[in-house]
Amino acid sequence: LIDDPSQANPYPLLVVLGHTDDATLILNLEAAGTVAIVGDDPGTEEVLRALVMETATSGLASQLAIHVDEPLADLEGAFEDFRLRATDARDDRTRIEADVAAGLADAGLDDTLQLRGDGDAADLWLPYVYVEHSLRAAPSAPWSGVVTVTRQPADAAWRLQVAADGSARLEPFGIDYLPQRLTAEHAEQLRGVLVTSLPPD
Q: Are 160 and 173 in contact, with CB atoms under 8 Å apart?
């Protein structure tokens, strides 16, 4: 992690997924592009909620833009608007992906991995995160400046397969782990704490 506050963090979307028998499992969402959290167990939604809250409260980036769909819209009031909000007409994912691609091309860069490797990743290059229970467009590509998290299986996505026994498996890597979960009740308690910490209007 970068200690100099004047420098952007090269990996603003590192998130903890959970734990294996002997390690903490951390995923860079930008490297995935699209992450599908799938499973029939009701706890699958708790895994998604934990991932969203982990990302939204991360200290690795100052102004992440996280857009959630209706099932998680209740989180909106717990954060400043630029940090997390329910998706609306401002938030056309395909348009933003095209805008980022054009900006990278103008800068002579292949993707945000090259940008961050060059050490010139200013905050205006922070990635956008879209939470879509059902995909509204094609999956987001790795290092495209846009990340999509979905409950819908997708061939191009990295997959968190959640089992009924509470375990999960990260594909395509075949890593078995115990995922973080956040129940609706605990999310509401955490939301109350976050609301009290918001700056005054």
A: no
